[in-house]
Amino acid sequence: MIELSKTVIGIAAGVAGTIFIGYCIYFDSKRRNDPDYKKKIRERRRQHHTSGVTRGGLPNLNDHKAIER
After folding, report:
1. Main-chain phi, psi angles of 55, to 5 degrees
2. Given CB 3.0 to 4.6 Å as the disulfide criterion, which of 21, 26, 51, 59 pairs with 66?
3. How do residues 24-69 score in pLDDT, each as one tens digit?
4. SS3 per residue for the chain
5. Pick from 58, 29, 4: which is nearest to 66 by CA?
């Protein structure tokens, strides 16, 4: 069986981590450059705001209808 040194394993882990971070950055920029991205975000925030749910996931305790939902 082939024995791998700690240096080779460390370099492989570093390369894999760098590739993963690059993958995340690439697709995040692709998502943000989508023409409908801002429209979708505004619509999602508008729906979230009108539903009466606060940021923590709990309903607004001052809104009786939100509590019932």
Report:
1. -60, -35
2. 59
3. 999 999 988 888 888 888 898 888 777 655 556 676 677 777 777 6
4. CCCCCHHHHHHHHHHHHHHHHHHHHHHHHHHHCCCCHHHHHHHHHHHHHHHCECCCCCECCCCHHHHHC
5. 58
